[in-house]
């Protein structure tokens, strides 16, 4: 059964319609920047730092499994630092404004 057929037989179809209408017309600040900072930035930092650390340590560490483990830990540390730094910056911006 398609969506419209399902909604047509639903007893709460008017309630759903009202909820979607209310949410669609809600006046709220955009959340795009917050979503990017919360999800996309840490992911990008992790991927980039993993690649950079693998490349930099490839000459120093000869064993592949050790290289992978150390690179992973460095990337994880960089990502954690990024999250902490982002939170501190946002906290200062929100308190000052």
Structural overview:
- The chain is mainly alpha-helical.
- The protein has a domain of 67 residues.
- Helix content is 80%, strand content 0%.
- The chain has 4 helices and no strands.
- Helix 3 packs antiparallel against helix 4.
- The radius of gyration is 23 Å and the shape is elongated.
Q: What is the strand and helix layout of this fold?
A:
Layout: H1 3-9, H2 13-24, H3 32-57, H4 64-96
Helix pairs in contact: 3-4
Beta-strand residue percentage = under 5%
Total beta strand runs: 0
The profile of the biggest β sheet is:
none
Class based on secondary structure composition and strand pairing: mainly alpha
Instruction: Output the number of helix runs.
Output: 4
- Average pLDDT confidence is 85
Measured distance between first and last alpha carbons: 51 Å
Along the chain, the helix and strand elements come as HHHH
Residues in helix, %? over 70%
Overall body shape: elongated
């Amino acid at each position: 059964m398609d969506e419209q057929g399902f909604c047509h037989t639903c007893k709460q179809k008017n309630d759903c319609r009202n909820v979607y209408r209310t949410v669609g017309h809600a006046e709220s600040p955009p959340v795009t920047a917050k979503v990017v900072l919360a999800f996309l930035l840490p992911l990008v930092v992790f991927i980039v730092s993993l690649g950079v650390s693998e490349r930099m340590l490839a000459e120093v560490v000869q064993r592949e499994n050790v290289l992978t483990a150390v690179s992973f830990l460095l990337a994880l540390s960089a990502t954690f630092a990024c999250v902490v730094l982002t939170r501190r910056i946002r906290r200062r911006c929100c308190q000052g404004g």
